[in-house]
Amino acid sequence: MPAYEPEFEQAKKELVSTLESSSLFEKNPEYKKALEVVSIPERIIQFRVVWEDDKNQCQVNNGYRVQFNSALGPYKGGLRLHPTVNLSILKFLGFEQIFKNALTGLNMGGAKGGADFDPKGKSDNEIRKFCVSFMRELSKHIGADTDVPAGDIGVSGREIGYLFGTYRAIRNQWEGVLTGKGGAWGGSLIRPEATGYGLVYYVEHMINYASGGKESFAGKKVAISGSGNVAQYAALKVIELGGTVVSLSDSKGALIATEGKGFTPEDINKIAALKVERKALTAFEGHSYNYIEGARPWVHVGKVDVALPSATQNEVSEDEAKALIDAGAKFIAEGSNMGCTQEAIDVFEAHRKSNGGNAIWYAPGKAANAGGVAVSGLEMAQNSQRLSWTSEEVDSKLKGIMKQCFDNCLETAKEYVTPAESEFPSLVAGANVAGFKKVAAAMHDQGDWW
């Protein structure tokens, strides 16, 4: 693996280390070959995107689609538009997506794509022109039964609309080729909320299991990072369930609630409006929160019960992990992909092993934030049937998927990494083993390895 792919290397190491520390390879030594095969993408598409800005000047960006694994179904995973996008990041995201999609129980493979284009500061017209040029090339490689992209950082409903319209015009067909579509033209209700809601539903099962059914989110103090789609809806669901949200953040700094207070739904709606306008949290006026420039929330939130990193990769460091434990956090679950560094995960897992029922319990993003792609899969199902389900139907299916995902991670962990007396099972090991086993078995049946 090239040394210039640090994010992918980290994601692969995280999977390998948990598989090796489980009894999987001892019970099934042939799976080592499956790991070797699954770690190489089936296909990487790289292309140039040439577009015209509002000054009629030619601009060019790098476009990508990493089609990592299709053993379980069509490739499925988001498109990210951000200046940091490169192959290492997209390979890490696509690799994680394989196992995340497997954990939903739906028939979806894993992929990721995007471009090093920065939507910030661009006009609607410039974004439309970029999306048209990007889709001209991407359209050759995707389809409802081949590869179904979705949104990710920098790709909201607006961009999905431009991309879908371009695909429809080029291919002369309407099909469910993208998810996150508008409600009037094939989108699913609850899709914008799904990742945040699903994250909270997953943690609800963690709290219920750890407390023997005696506790819930009611009365819990919850630290959340980020202020985008995932963070907003996670915060609203936490508040709905009786918890108190004490932080949100963006790339420029963190908003921390003062003692005894928490974010209100009105505050979150105002922040959501700022995000639509692509403004920073510094534009949030008339609030009583402490704004800490250049900071993440974790060392500033004081005593908390739950931490939900929901911004971007590697946003919880080793020192911040220790600070969360010192702050009394009992549950940490990733709303972002690979939100914790490997060093942070090691801190959480060591604490879990040595502190029994008083330990912090960590859930990885491939399980905890799978709600978003799960509802994308439900959107695909609705498109295939030319149906639209109600919010209640979709939310009920999402709850069922997150419960099944938690139970799968829990039972797989008990089977392959037997916990000591009073020790919580390792959800990171459970998620990795369960997701990997399902994909590897499908690949074996189809002759991808033997």
From TrEMBL:
Binding residue positions for substrate: 76, 97, 100, 151, 376
Record-annotated Glutamate/phenylalanine/leucine/valine/L-tryptophan dehydrogenase C-terminal domain positions: 188-447
InterPro entries membership: Aminoacid_DH-like_N_sf, Glu/Leu/Phe/Val/Trp_DH, Glu/Leu/Phe/Val/Trp_DH_C, Glu/Leu/Phe/Val/Trp_DH_dimer, Glu/Leu/Phe/Val_DH_AS, Glu_DH, Glu_Leu_Phe_Val_DH, NAD(P)-bd_dom_sf
Record Pfam families: ELFV_dehydrog, ELFV_dehydrog_N
Binding site residues for NAD(+): 195, 229
One cellular component term from this protein's GO annotations in UniProt: cytosol
Active site: 112 (proton donor)
SUBUNIT field: Homohexamer.
Protein name listed in UniProt: Glutamate dehydrogenase
Organism: Periconia macrospinosa
